[in-house]
Amino acid sequence: MHSSNLLIEEPIRMISILEPAKSSFFPAMTRIVGTLGPKSRSVDVISSCLKAGMSVARFDFSWGDAEYHQETLENLKTAIKTTKKLCAVMLDTVGAEMQVVNKNETSISLQADSQVILTPDQGQEASSEILPINFDGLAKSVKTGDTIFVGQYLFTGSETTSVWLEVAEVTGQDVVCTVKNSATLAGALFTLHGSQIHIDLPTLTEKDKEVISTWGVKNKIDFLSLSYTRHAEDVRQAREFLSTLGDLSQTQIFAKIENVEGLTHFDEILQEADGIILSRGNLGIDLPPEKVFYFQKSALYKCNMAGKPAVLTRVVDSMTDNLRPTRAEATDVANAVLDGSDAILLGAETLRGLYPVETISTVGRICSEAEKVFNQELFFKRTVKYVGEPMTHLESIASSAVRAAIKVKASVIICFTSSGRAARLIAKYRPTMPVLSVVIPRLKTNQLKWSFSGAFEARQSLIVRGLFPMLADPRHPAESTSASNESILKVALDHGKMAGVIKPHDRVVICQKVGDASVVKIIELED
Q1: CA angle, 468 then 472 then 477, to 5°
Q2: Exposed end of the chain (fewer CB within 10 Å): N or C?
Q3: What is the pLDDT of residue 495?
Q4: What phi-psi label fits residue 230: left (phi over 0), alpha (psi between -120 and 50 degrees) or beta?
Q5: Is-cis flag, bond preceding 27, omega within 30?
């Protein structure tokens, strides 16, 4: 895999520690995905999360039923209306996840060097001697000496709430393990992870399919996060399934890479998926600690070159209970930005954390500071070199728009698009200024009724670094005249002015289609 040098400007200009962060409509170019749950599902909290910079709301079906998540989503819709902030919806599947079932929710204390049995018999009660699990094939998948990790939902990695087990022997369907560290497991559900063990469970379970075809269809989800993606075939099967569900044929699939198996087939998975989520909690268990950074940099580089969004998880775990991240976490967020991450995904921090809003704004501020020293010139050269020659027509236009914007010090790039592809290609070159993606609705029909498309495309831009979508008035469809394009441009410029990114006398680069030709033009604004 390719190892990339740190993309940071030399020399770093010293930023005064007292210099206030700019308050802006665009808090940072890097996007933030927030997981909504018990501590972040009221209209007020969600509204504050949107204002703080959350642009994608994640609904994790590893816990909670469809009704619970529907209530949260209705609150999200209300918050979007009141704040006038666009937000996309991501459904996260359970996938091939093994779980310990603790029906009574009693705390379970495990002592180092004692033995505990993992059994598929879910009729048993969970205790310090026996842990019932939701998978009857574990005994066939493991051997003596294998490592198994059991922890609370969304691994804390804390040695007091998570336990490492070593397989001592297999008897029938039961797996007898030696406890490696003392810990107390609390809650109804703990995730079980076999380190570098192939688990014969489907990537898209029957329960997942049911949730997608009911809750997902009803809510026209923008993104499907495909947990435990291990092969390109997993993505192909999921896409085939979505194609049978009407509107969901437009839903983008993000492959969640959680184990070595997924990393081994990374290149093929990246070709098939619309984006990648690097699930570092699980990867950190599956990989030796000294290898984690290398695979992160390598995977992000590949996503960047392919022009597909890369999302990183598990960055500020300590903010679940604390108002400030640790030094290591703050540096980790900045390095994620410098490595090329499009978005940061917050899990437990917003789901059940005490400070969901503060976490989003803290992460946003760190991203914003890192973006100031991101070496765009080096990144641009590397991307152009990787793409090679001859470039495709669209790629050439996109790179030219970014080069022009940087040369004339434009404050913003405005791109007219109907599929969103042109705008995503511009964002791929990581311009230092925001890209306003003006999505022009297309008129389409299913023989029964006419409708406008465009809302999906606009929301799906919300996970791409530096891309800020706005949906044009459907009275100006894509096949429109230059006069109507001028009126849409005026709306886009007004939007930029209101957001504080466009000021009098600023230069703006515009990328649009005129007839069969794509045009990049530079305009200078008057007072």
Answers
A1: 135
A2: C
A3: 80
A4: alpha
A5: no
Compute how many other C-beta atoms are within 10 angstroms of the C-beta atom of residue 236: 13
- 193 beta partners: 149
**Distance (Å, whole) CA 231 – CA 266:** 8
Q: Could you tell me if 59 and 73 are in contact, meaning their C-beta atoms sit under 8 angstroms apart? A: yes
Instruction: Please state, as a whole number, how many other Cβ atoms lie within 10 Å of the Cβ of residue 227.
Output: 26
Angle at 464 between CA 462 and CA 469, to 5 degrees: 45
d(CA 159, CA 170): 25
Average pLDDT, the chain: 86
**Which residue shows structure tokens 């093994």?**
98
In whole angstroms, what is the distance from residue 79 CA to residue 85 CA?
Answer: 8
Q: How many CB atoms lie within 10 A of CB 525?
A: 15
Phi, psi for residue 434 in degrees, rounded to 5: -65, 150
Rounded to 5°, the CA angle 218-215-442 comes to 35
In this prediction, residues 404-417 reach a mean pLDDT of: 92
The predicted-structure confidence for 481-504, as pLDDT tens digits, reads as follows: 455 567 778 888 888 888 788 888
Whole-angstrom Cα distance, residue 41 to residue 49?
A: 10
Tokens of 48: 């504050």
Phi, psi of 417 (to 5 degrees): -150, 150
H-run or E-run covering 469 = strand 467-471
Supply the pLDDT for residue 210. 95
Q: Rounded to the nearest 5°, which phi and psi values hold at 45?
A: -65, -40
End-to-end CA distance of the chain: 51
Chain length of the chain = 527
In angstroms, the CA 231 to CA 257 distance is: 10
Q: Indicate whether 215 pLDDT > 90.
A: yes
Could you tell me if 308 and 276 are in contact, meaning their C-beta atoms sit under 8 angstroms apart? yes
CA separation for the pair 104, 520 (Å, rounded): 63
The CA distances from residue 110 to 139, 153, 155, 527, in Å, are 21, 17, 17, 70
- Percent of the chain topping pLDDT 70: 87
Task: List, in sequence order, every residue forming a beta bridge with 133; answer none if it has no partner.
Answer: 100
In order, the DSSP letters of 177-191 are EEE-S-EEE-SSEEE
The region that residue 343 occupies, defined by phi over 0 for left and psi between -120 and 50 for alpha, beta otherwise, is beta
CB 184 within 8 A of CB 212: no
- At 413, give phi and psi (nearest 5°): -110, 130
What percent of the chain clears pLDDT 90, i.e. is strictly above it? 59
Report the C-alpha gap between 98 and 133 in whole angstroms.
7
Measured between alpha carbons, how far is residue 293 from residues 300, 332, 384, 387 in Å?
Answer: 11, 10, 25, 25
Contacts of 184 (CB under 8 A, 6+ apart): 107, 108, 109, 110, 160, 161
| pLDDT confidence bin for 152, thresholds 50/70/90 | low
